[in-house]
Amino acid sequence: MSGNPEAEAGARNLLVEDIVARTGIDDEMIDGPVRSFYAAARQDPLLAPVFESKVEDWEAHFARLDAFWSSVALMSGRYHGQPMAKHVALPIDTPHFDRWLEIFAETVQRVCPPLAAADFLDRAHRIADSLELGIAFHKNEIRPKRVRPPRTFLPAEAGEGRQEEASSAAPRC
Length: 173
Known about the structure:
This protein is mainly alpha-helical and 173 residues long. It has helices at 5-23, 27-41, 48-54, 58-74, 83-88, 94-111, 114-138. The protein is globular and about 45 Å long.
């Protein structure tokens, strides 16, 4: 960056304002999909055992995930952690990532306006790809990037030309 903290903060604020205006995502919205996703994932036969074996304090976990998604979606810098280190020791592989994405896609479609859902899901795909490849690398496995199952994507029209969906009248996540 420029080395000028004020200019960097101004540029970051403009980017965040653009994200909020385009998608409707803000810090207030983030908690909805986080809690809704985990409500479903904790009932899932594949994912529930992983989460239940590692998460002792769900409220603290939600706060950490809200900060993570704020950092991912809004560049807030609220999250301070190492997601790869947290995930590399888990007993998870391709089917877990696919199921995570399926439940996440179902969740954001259900609880978010279309542009927010599309943005969250785009970022979720990148996160899943990164974690899965990082875990494989840690195991000394080399895998080609693979195609995600179609049910982990939103319908094409969800993110195209629907700016009005991100308005304050749209349902909140």
